[in-house]
Amino acid sequence: MKILIKGGHVVDPANNRDEVCDILLEGTKIAKIAKKINCAAEKSIDATDKIVMPGLIDMHVHLREPGREDQETVASATSAALKGGITSVLAMPNTSVPIDCAENAELLKAIIKKTAHATVLIAGTITEGRRGEKLTNIAKLKKGGVIAISDDGSSVDNGQVLLKALKLAKENKLLVICHSEDKALSGHGMVNSGITSTRMGLRGISSESEYKRVQRDVGLAEKAKAPIHIAHVSCKESVEIIRKAKKIGIKVTAETAPHYFALTEQEVLGFDTNMKMNPPLRSRDDAEAIKQGLRDGTIDAIASDHAPHTESEKDIEFERAQFGVIGLETELAASVTELVEKEVLDWTGLVRKLAVNPAKILGIDKGTLGIGCDADIIVVAPEEEWLVEKNRFLSKSKNSPFIGKKLKSTVEYTICQGKIVYQAR
Ligand SMILES: [Zn+2]
User: Which residue is catalytic, options 12, 305, 374, 376?
Assistant: First the structure.
């Protein structure tokens, strides 16, 4: 099968390309890129006035399978991903059957093989049952196909355990992803500490509970001389700690999620449970610092932290509602609206955060449009504005913080390994 994408504005930072040209796909790979390609193809896509870029790589997604198929499945999440222009996701291991041994990784791999519509990469846990005590068999997890380890949902409280994990992960060429939160400080908090928690009469989650743990985690990476990745950075102090760590050569990378730069704690004052996530929405200053961190390279990647919850878990009193929001279908548009439209990043910068850097951090051969690379490509209508509506989500759960908001840019086509797997109506 040959697909010819004609006349699109191709943004491919990995190859320094930012120009109007044609792309020919053959089989599962990219065959040719040139100003004009004249050849017979089974399918031709007119990409005039569209942006053509690598398929996005979302390195922080909760698929909920195995165990909570009422919230989401590999099939429903990957359909949602394709609609959002995401062709690869990293599945976080804190499923109700946690991915803490090779057997469970194999179980998930079998589900993926049968039902996934996009590329799904697997993370395993750092400790058994995510209890923070005994390390998993990291070498075996690697053999079982995991590419990263994380106790996401919790932090590994015992520094010695994490230090050992960092060393073993380095030996086995696995990335350690840290959910940096000191539970002793965040406790039973619900929203950002300060004026918001006071006004709402709820317990707060301080920035300190995040950044003190980021500081510790980065320090352990330095000690282990190993790479570390900090998940869902939400506050200005964390950005500054990571910035300084990078300057002195610590191998730290970091991600944030769109809600941390597109929304602030103001949104939560109406007790909307779709604004309840952990870490919580923070202040305007924090959102600005996150944007600055994205601009200057302190924050390498944008990931959704897609966390589906059913209506019965969300449509209840704020205190009882689960933490977490979905994000696969709004990640690109929220980023375009908040970053490209407001000139925080240009398209090249955005593609770095959403595709090039996640691929580099995960060590996978994707995120570029080079000849011979996997034909994971999206065609985006940059000027198209749309209203986020609850009943339009492909995700099984509808807990999006962007419902009712207008976002810029839509995905017209998603091509995964040379196949058109999503097309806007
Ligand atoms: Zn987390």
Answer: 305
